[in-house]
Design a protein that fits this description.
By secondary structure, the protein is α/β, with parallel strands linked by helices. The protein has a single domain, classed as Rossmann fold (3-Layer(aba) Sandwich), CATH 3.40.50. The protein contains 7 helices and 7 strands, in the order H-H-E-E-H-E-E-H-E-H-H-H-E-E. A 7-stranded mixed sheet has the order 3-2-1-4-5-7-6, with helices on both faces. Strand 4, helix 4 (132-142) and strand 5 (143-154) form a beta-alpha-beta unit. The termini are far apart.
Length: 221
């Protein structure tokens, strides 16, 4: 096992993710909106580009869409059709005219040209995708030179009782549809291997530092 491996996790694939989030879709907002709100607010603030284009990967039910600067042009993608249906309803009811599209798409195989977006934001996504580093490769591809990738993620505990709980959950990753254990080394090792990508911010977020905001800049040409 290398330092960038998700430890002791059963493999997940897109079918696991789709099935899990189809189950979560009806209650997702009620269950997760409050605890994840600080991360979404921070991600939207960091990724907003008034007049520019931002890709929201794993947009889900669209909870963070109203949090962006309204002059930021947004495109959201997600693997879950039930979640996207709720996002479309949110866009309609809240008149989010800056949302240009919500599309079913695999985060690891984006149907966009190179250097399409001024920023990519992916809140709570890296623990869901089967291959985090392949996903980062793809997000870096679609970001313009001088742009950013903005992440919010739970980073696994290294020791203590929480680490034990995460290890137990990790053996059930396929059914959960996400990786409870997620070392920051997955992100750090990827950045280290990308000469044009630089870590510009990493900070814990409320509540209780459970989540981490990570900003990665792509070098300008």
């Amino acid at each position: 096992m290398t330092s960038s491996t998700v430890p002791h996790a059963s493999a997940i694939d897109n079918a696991d993710v789709e099935a899990a989030y189809a189950r979560w879709a009806p209650v997702y907002d009620l269950t997760f909106a409050l605890v994840m709100r600080p991360g979404r607010v921070a991600a939207a603030a960091a990724a907003s580009r008034p007049g520019g284009r931002v890709l929201d990967v794993g947009v889900g039910t669209g909870l963070e869409l109203p949090m962006f600067d309204p002059a930021t042009r947004l495109t959201g993608v997600d693997l879950s059709r039930p979640m996207l249906a709720r996002a479309r309803e949110r866009v309609k009811t809240q008149a989010l005219v800056n949302v240009e599209g919500l599309v079913v798409m695999d985060a690891m195989r984006l149907a966009f040209a190179d250097a399409t977006f001024d920023a990519v934001v992916a809140p709570y996504v890296l623990t869901v995708v089967p291959d985090p580093q392949a996903s980062l490769d793809e997000w870096a591809r679609v970001v313009k030179p001088g742009g950013e990738i903005v992440l919010v993620n739970h980073v696994g505990a290294e020791r203590g009782s929480l680490a034990g709980i995460e290890a137990w959950l990790g053996r059930r990753s396929a059914k959960l549809g996400w990786h409870p254990q997620f070392p920051f080394a997955v992100i750090a090792d990827w950045i280290a291997g990308q000469p044009n990508m630089t870590l510009i911010e990493r900070r814990p977020l409320a509540p209780f530092g459970l989540f981490t905001l990570t900003r990665i800049a792509k070098a300008a040409v």
